[in-house]
């Protein structure tokens, strides 16, 4: 079964689906990923003089994932269809060609806006981003209990693997010290109430768009429950890496998210744990972008107080 599609193969499938959905219209298709190579899924902006859409085309081997992601996107599109926090609507899913067609949010991503913004404007957008995340998590948020064994075990295994030469990462000795400090907090925190929710799991400034007076979240295809802190830490790291001071960015994000239920000691534990997760996924010779994100993660780890 085919695992990847070329751009041309995916364009042909997208055109056929669009022709069925909108007879008599010709659509220009521009690739949104800017990677001219076979991919498991290709994403296009479909342009017509009176409308813009997004078409995501999956390879045949991705059929189960495509159906699940289309269902999740459609669910969120209905739930966040109006107001200040939105998700693009799914207009159709072609199960035969594995093409999902969605509305297009015609605005700039926060990543595109970021370099030209002053600190106050960045903080204002981070507050709005916190509000969008709160709306997303609020759809499924429930109270659970902290069960850190799996996460702590994964971090420890990554350190062991790296020491054995498998995917080493920068400054492993310092990582080990930070991990030991985190482990020391576990006995007092295990079993305490902590929120759980279906999260984004790939949240960064490029997945948030300002359009029509609202903030839109893109790529909302995850349906697995997780710690909401994962999304908060990922977004804060990205904002700081792209040029934001950590204290005001964190304060703005926390203000928008407005978590009044999670105890401070748990928020501190979770922010450190997810920042350590990014650290041990950073290659030993990081790109400039990866190095900036690692630097942001280490700022979070060094904080003695919860940031978000």
The level of helicity is 40-55%
CATH topology of the largest domain: Aminoglycoside 3'-phosphotransferase, Chain: A, domain 2
CATH class category of the largest domain: Alpha Beta
For the largest sheet, list the strands in their spatial order. Answer: 1-2-3-6-5
How many DSSP E strands?
12
CA gyration radius, whole angstroms: 21 Å
β-sheet strand percentage: 15-25%
State mean pLDDT (0 to 100 scale). Answer: 96
Shape: globular
Structural class based on helices, strands and sheet pairing: alpha+beta
CATH architecture of the largest domain: Alpha-Beta Complex
Q: Distance between termini? A: 44 Å
User: How many helical stretches?
Assistant: 11
- Total domains: 2
Q: CATH homologous superfamily of the largest domain - what is it? A: Aminoglycoside phosphotransferase (APH), C-terminal lobe
Low-confidence stretches: none
H/E topology pattern = HEEEHEEEEHHEHHHEEEEHHHH
The major β-sheet equals: 5 strands, antiparallel
Organism: Salipiger marinus
Domain Aminoglycoside phosphotransferase: 47-266
GO molecular function: transferase activity
Protein name: Phosphotransferase enzyme family protein
């Amino acid at each position: 079964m085919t695992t990847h599609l070329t751009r041309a193969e995916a364009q042909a499938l997208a055109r056929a689906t669009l022709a069925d959905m909108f007879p008599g219209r010709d659509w220009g298709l521009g690739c949104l990923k800017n990677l001219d190579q076979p991919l498991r899924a290709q994403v296009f902006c479909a342009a017509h003089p009176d409308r813009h859409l997004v078409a995501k085309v999956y390879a045949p081997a991705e059929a189960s994932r495509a159906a699940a992601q289309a269902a999740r996107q459609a669910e969120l599109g209905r739930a966040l269809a109006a107001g200040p926090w939105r998700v693009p609507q799914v207009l159709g899913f072609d199960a035969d060609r594995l093409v999902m067609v969605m509305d297009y949010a015609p605005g700039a991503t926060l990543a595109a806006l970021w370099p030209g913004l002053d600190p106050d404007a960045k903080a204002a957008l981070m507050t709005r981003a916190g509000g969008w995340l709160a709306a997303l998590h609020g759809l499924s948020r429930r109270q659970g209990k902290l069960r850190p064994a799996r996460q702590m075990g994964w971090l420890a295994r990554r350190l062991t693997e790296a020491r054995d030469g498998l995917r080493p990462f920068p400054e492993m000795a310092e990582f080990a010290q930070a991990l030991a400090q985190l482990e020391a907090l576990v006995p007092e925190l295990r079993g305490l109430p902590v929120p759980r929710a279906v999260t984004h799991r790939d949240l960064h400034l490029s997945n948030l768009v300002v359009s029509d007076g609202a903030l839109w979240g893109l790529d909302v295809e995850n349906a697995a429950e997780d710690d909401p802190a994962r999304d908060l830490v990922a977004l804060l790291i990205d904002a700081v890496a792209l040029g934001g001071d950590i204290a005001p960015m964190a304060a703005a994000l926390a203000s928008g998210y407005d978590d009044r239920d999670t105890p401070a000691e748990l928020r501190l534990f979770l922010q450190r744990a997810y920042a350590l997760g990014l650290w041990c996924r950073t290659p030993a010779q990081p790109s400039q972008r990866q190095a900036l994100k690692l630097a942001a993660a280490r700022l979070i780890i060094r904080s003695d107080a919860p940031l978000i």
